[in-house]
Specification:
With 401 residues, the chain is of the alpha/beta class. The protein is built from 16 helices and 7 strands. Helix content is 58%, strand content 10%. The strands form 2 sheets. A 5-stranded mixed sheet has the order 3-2-1-4-5. Strands 6-7 form a two-stranded antiparallel ribbon. A hairpin with a 4-residue loop joins strand 1 and strand 2. Helix 1 crosses helix 2 and helix 14 crosses helix 16. The N and C termini lie far apart (90 Å). 32% of the residues are buried.
């Protein structure tokens, strides 16, 4: 086959196999093949595609996971890679001939989008430290979800024993979990009494033992009737309390691992210098941005990626109609929104900005979003200049003459 000037290789990534479709400058398919997700097969197809043209541009619909091996091999080969989001592939598939959906068609759509569009983001494999943080933060998110589900099951089980106890105890804290494992029924709590319960909780190293014991005894005293199957419910509640504590301990362990790796990053001190951003949010920021501000030409670019730059949706005579963009990074949006919320309580400058927006008539959420947008500008400038945040000096009013 005669070599052409350039080709575009689209990859529909899968767990066991990828489908690779290669297009020439006219959009004709010059190669379409299912490739096993293992190193020898992937190396062979990368070499084959490279031999088809002087320039080969790869496009893929995944950033990690099943595509990790292929991305690593492409990076090692110095290949040019762009990212085509799955949402784009799904939306554009209907514009191509045929109603059926196949891996071959998806791979062709991905390749054709890379051929026609110049706005696709380049996919640069992240440094190892950021990759580790991505894995750890994803694992932490899973553990938090598991813990939340276990707490919901625990609350549902406790309602079968005592609604008053369920209302009185906060199971996001360790103390109530310790209490309910030892004393799961109102009768057991009443029999122990406040003094004995306080001493027992202190022996279990529960925080605020006296306050917790008093709340539990007050709730237990409000119910004297024994509900049906209380013994079985108490056994299940005891087990569920242990299930809640297990992921809680794992979350604390993984937090230490995230903290250790985040502090090794060159931008860690700058990121956490901005009020409201701690280790966890800082790690999520690095994961969402890839840890490299060179990918964002301006603060506006970063704000758009975070979904904090409104996009116009005008039509006909309707102008100035601004909405949040549909395509943005949810994780980065959460980082800036959450850190803005926290900064209101710990930064006088953030509080003053928030109060000013509220005085202008904005709702709470609108004021926090406006603050988050402003903080994007600040953090981008800090990272660009590699300098920590320094709060402005307080203005001292001049004495009256």
């Amino acid at each position: 086959m005669e070599q052409v000037s350039a080709v575009w290789a689209g990859v529909d990534a899968g767990k066991e196999h990828h489908h690779v479709a290669v297009l020439d400058p006219e959009g004709s398919v010059v190669l379409s093949r299912r490739v096993a997700n293992d190193e020898p097969a992937l190396r062979a197809v990368i070499a084959e595609v490279a031999g088809l043209a002087g320039r080969a541009r790869w496009a893929i619909d995944l950033r990690d996971g099943a595509a990790a091996l292929l991305l690593a091999l492409l990076a090692a080969a110095g290949a040019e890679i762009v990212y085509v989001p799955g949402r784009v592939v799904h939306r554009m598939t209907g514009a191509y001939r045929g109603e059926g959906k196949t891996d071959a068609k998806d791979a062709r759509v991905i390749a054709d989008q890379a051929r026609m569009r110049a706005d696709l983001a380049p996919l640069v494999p992240g440094e190892e430290l950021v990759t580790e943080l991505r894995m750890l933060t994803a694992r932490r998110s899973d553990l938090v979800t598991d813990r939340t589900r276990a707490i919901n099951r625990l609350r549902a089980g406790l309602l079968e024993i005592s609604p008053a106890l369920e209302r009185a105890l906060d199971f996001t804290c360790t103390g109530p979990l310790i209490l309910i494992r030892g004393y799961p029924t109102p009768a057991a709590i009443r029999q122990a009494g406040e003094q004995q319960l306080t001493a027992w909780l202190r022996g279990q190293h529960a925080r605020n033992a006296a306050r917790l014991a008093a709340a539990a005894v007050a709730a237990a005293a409000s119910q004297t009737v024994r509900l049906p199957a209380e013994d079985v419910a108490a056994e299940l509640v005891t087990e569920l309390a242990g299930e809640v504590m297990t992921p809680g301990a794992r979350i604390r362990q993984i937090d230490l691992r995230i903290q250790d790796r985040f502090r090794r990053h060159r931008a860690a001190a700058v990121i956490t210098s901005l009020p409201g951003i701690g280790t966890l949010l800082g790690a999520e920021f690095l994961v969402a941005t890839g840890g490299d501000m060179a990918a964002f030409a301006s603060a506006d670019h970063l704000a758009g990626y975070a979904g904090l730059a409104p996009a116009p949706r005008d039509s006909g005579r309707r102008t100035g109609n601004l909405h949040r963009p549909r395509r943005y990074n949810r994780q980065l949006n959460r980082v800036f929104y959450t850190s803005a919320l926290v900064s209101i309580t710990c930064s006088p400058q953030s509080r003053a900005f928030y109060d000013r927006k509220r005085a202008e008539g904005k709702k709470h959420t609108q004021a926090v979003l406006a603050l988050a947008r402003r903080r994007v500008n600040v953090l981008w400038a800090l990272l660009r200049d590699n300098r920590p945040y320094m709060p402005p000096a307080p203005v001292i009013a001049a004495e009256a003459a």
